Amino acid sequence: MNVSQIEPYIKYVTDTTGEKTEVIIPINLWEKLLDLLTPTESGLHPDDEYEPNATILADLKQSVKEAAADQTYPVSDLWADVET
């Protein structure tokens, strides 16, 4: 889920000068966002918590091969799409 997917559902509250002061979002979207932001008991993101071990091992093997071949990739910023 990215910002462009949720923007149509967001309503802004403004003050008398037109300055945005608050946001109103549907409760189902809010709950989904909370689920995405709340780590599991282990501290892992839910997507990572339940990823099969075989997938993790395959990804690790691929990463080791790429690193040995000097193929490196930048880590993406999780909040790159979010304006502050």
Can you characterise this structure?
With 84 residues, the protein is an alpha+beta fold. The chain folds into two domains: 1-38, no CATH class; 44-71. Helices cover 42% and strands 11% of the residues. β1 and β2 (20-24) form a beta hairpin. The longest helix is centred in the last third of the chain and has 16 residues, at 53-68. The radius of gyration is 19 Å and the shape is elongated. It starts with a helix and ends in a 16-residue tail after the last helix.
List its traits.
two-stranded antiparallel ribbon, 84 residues, alpha+beta, 2 strands
Strand tally is 2
Q: Helix segment count? A: 4
The dominant shape is: elongated
* Mean of residue pLDDT values: 82
- Helix residue percentage: 40-55%
Number of domains in the coordinates? 2
Assembly context of the chains: single chain
Helix/strand order, N-terminal first: HEEHHH
Rg, rounded, reads: 19 Å
Summarize the structure.
This protein has four helices and two strands. The protein is of the alpha+beta class and 84 residues long.
What secondary-structure arrangement, pairings included, does this model have?
Layout: H1 3-6, E1 11-14, E2 20-24, H2 27-37, H3 46-49, H4 53-68
Antiparallel strand pairs: 1-2
